[in-house]
Amino acid sequence: MSIGVHNIGQGCVTCLDHDEHYILTFPNGYGRQVNALIGIFIFNTLSILTVPWIELGGECSISCSKTGYNASIVFHTKPFYGGKKHRITAEIFSPNDKKPFCSIEGEWNGVMYAKYSTGENAVFIDTKKMPTIKKKVRKLEDQDDFESRCLWKDVTYNLK
Fold first, then answer.
1. What are the E-state strand segments in 45-101?
2. C-alpha to C-alpha distance for 72 and 100, rounded to whole angstroms
3. Which PANTHER family match (predicted)?
4. Which of 29, 90, 129, 148 could form a disulfide with 5 if both were Cys (CB 3.0 to 4.6 A apart)?
């Protein structure tokens, strides 16, 4: 009673202020309990049904060729019994180092904590306190035919 999307390929994020390019891979996406009615008919019980949720799962990486820094990130899926949703762990490495100088754990949609090789512990980021920034997107008439919003405009219109 779930659906999964396995992302392949990589993306590039450019930090213009520092002339840095980051190559990253993406986690898989899952919609869990996407159709609770199927569960009722198949299992004939309500006790197994939960509220639907979206989760990320799998390993990702981020690297910067200019600085040599890189990170390994794991999005943990919720176990069938027990466990928590939205867990993430990560390790950040300095250039040419095999041992991370920082380990991160927490929830990707909540608070993440950093533990540095110096022994220092700190809040890495609290996503709930981050401001929402409005996207800057060119008008549809200014986009090329195969840019995402232009390509999917009819689907978006019909979904709305």
1. 53-64, 70-76, 87-93
2. 10
3. OXYSTEROL-BINDING PROTEIN-RELATED, OXYSTEROL-BINDING PROTEIN-RELATED PROTEIN 9
4. 29
- Mean pLDDT within 93-120: 96
For the chain, domain boundaries: 2-159
Residue 121, amino acid = N
Residue 39 has pLDDT above 80, yes or no: no
What token pair was written down for 40?
A: 């009722």
Give the tens place of pLDDT for each residue, 57-67.
Answer: 999 999 999 99
Phi and psi at residue 43, to the nearest 5°: -100, -10
Cβ-contact 83, 90 below 8 angstroms: no
Point out which residues pair with 55 in neighbouring strands. 30
pLDDT of amino acid 26: 96
Helix H or strand E segment including 36: helix 36-43
Question: What percentage of the chain's residues is helix, strand, coil (to nearest 5)?
Answer: 20, 40, 45
Contact 102, 92 (CB under 8 A): yes
What pLDDT is stored for residue 34 in this prediction? 55
Q: Which residue has the higher pLDDT, 51 or 99?
A: 99
